[in-house]
Input
Amino acid sequence: MIRYASDKDHLCGKIPADFVNKVYSMTKTKEYDAGTGKVIDPERRKAVMLLADANDSEVLTSVLREKRFRILGMTGKPDAAFELMRKHKVGILFLDESIPGMDLSETLFQIKRRFPEFMIVLLGEHVSREELQELFSRGVEAFLVKPLQYDAIVTSMSRFKLG
Output
């Protein structure tokens, strides 16, 4: 005899309870990209912010929270960001090019060498087409123009199928 999920009958008709419960528990804990049908890796929903400007951090933090990201930390010091990245191994780094005392080329090199699984989104005020191509060749995934705009952040994140 087949037992039916009486409390879920209104949602799924006469389907065996064990099947309904199994499907329900699977979809409850996983998030899917509607476009591809693939499971979104929850490990990629982590963000580290290496920022110089408090205004940018407010906008970025609000978008990340809205998109259910786990903010691992926010700092103005590369060494502190590297420590967070070392602990968590995977995620997105929002990197402000205007951090005082930071050599951007060396920082990008170190990030890609030590943390290849991290995606880098660079924040800056202006960049030429040639500079942008150079940044992309060094591992930058996206470039956001400062001051940050909500729509630009959301669009950038949608490229990663994360937002």
Summary: Confidence is low (pLDDT under 50) at residues 1-13. Residues 42-159 form a domain with the Rossmann fold fold (CATH 3.40.50.2300). Residues 125 and 146 are 5 Å apart (CA to CA).
